[in-house]
Amino acid sequence: SKPGVQEKINASIQSNVYNQIAGFRDANATNLALGDPQMRSAFEAQFDTSLVTPSFFSAIMLYSDYSAGAAHPNSYNVSLNYDLKTGESVTLDKFLQSLKPSAGYMDRLGKYVRDDLIRQLGDDQNIIAAIDLGGKPSAESYANFTLDGSGLSIHFDPYQVAPYAAGSPAVEISYADLMSVVIKSADASASATSSAKWWLQ
Questions:
Q1: Of the listed ranges 12-16, 123-127, 150-154, the one predicted with least confidence
Q2: DSSP strand E in the chain: where?
Q3: Which of 80, 122, 185, 186 is deepest in the core (most CB within 10 A)?
Q4: Cα distance between residue 171 and residue 176, in whole Å
Q5: How far apart are the first and last CA of the chain?
Q6: pLDDT, tens digit, for every residue of 136-171?
Q7: What is this structure's pTM?
Q8: Element at 17 (helix H, strand E)
Q9: More confident residue, 39 or 2
Q10: From residue 50, how far is each of 18, 115, 132, 164, 197 by CA, in Å?
Q11: DSSP state of 102
Q12: Separation between Cα atoms, residue 122 and residue 116, nearest integer Å
């Protein structure tokens, strides 16, 4: 990699983690510690790397914070995706745009995600309403994504598309489906898309 790229990425990840810690401290600054140590405010994080190549780094941080007196911890995801050639953070839309998608690709992605979440979580009307609200195709709803050797995964926080008990659902899309279903529509020519898996090279 180019000089300074690793340092740039390390600084970005460090800043991201420190910002999460600072937010937790601010939110709990006035909480009184309860007598039972197990019931005190706490902050934890888990780190899972899904892809490292000369071109791309993809990982997800699962944060869990507990505020004293709450019924249960609050969990949420923060994905970390970087172009290792430049050190720049890569958003989902930037990744998809690199594949030269045909028009309407976000709507097609949204349909794929919606159908898969319903398959996972059920077709109860309340579940479908939650999926349609928290899982609509947008940069914000799909902010947390990872890549691995098999495909693209979009991660959702607890409560985002289902009750807390459902945990953090994820939709996995194989690269074949990504290219054939999302990137190009059925009537789009193959020449309008790029099939080069640059992130795996």
A1: 12-16
A2: 42-52, 56-66, 74-83, 145-147, 151-155, 170-174
A3: 80
A4: 15
A5: 13
A6: 999 999 999 999 999 999 999 988 998 877 888 999
A7: 0.82
A8: helix 5-27
A9: 2
A10: 22, 24, 28, 24, 16
A11: P
A12: 10
Query: Is 43 in contact with 63 (CB distance < 8 Å)?
Result: yes
User: At residue 126, what is the residue type?
Assistant: N
Radius of gyration of the chain (CA): 19
The dihedral through the CA atoms of 113, 119, 125, 130 has a sign that is negative
List pLDDT tens digits, range 22-79: 777 777 666 655 555 556 777 677 889 999 999 999 999 887 776 665 656 677 889 9
Read off the pLDDT of residues 167-201 as tens digits, 9 standing for 90 and up.
889 999 999 999 989 998 655 554 444 556 888 88
Taking the C-alpha atoms of residue 71 and residue 69, their distance in angstroms, rounded to an integer, is 7
From the number of C-beta atoms within 10 Å of its C-beta (0-12, 13-18, 19+), residue 201 rates as exposed
Type of residue at 169: P
Cβ atoms of 57 and 9 within 8 Å: the answer is: yes
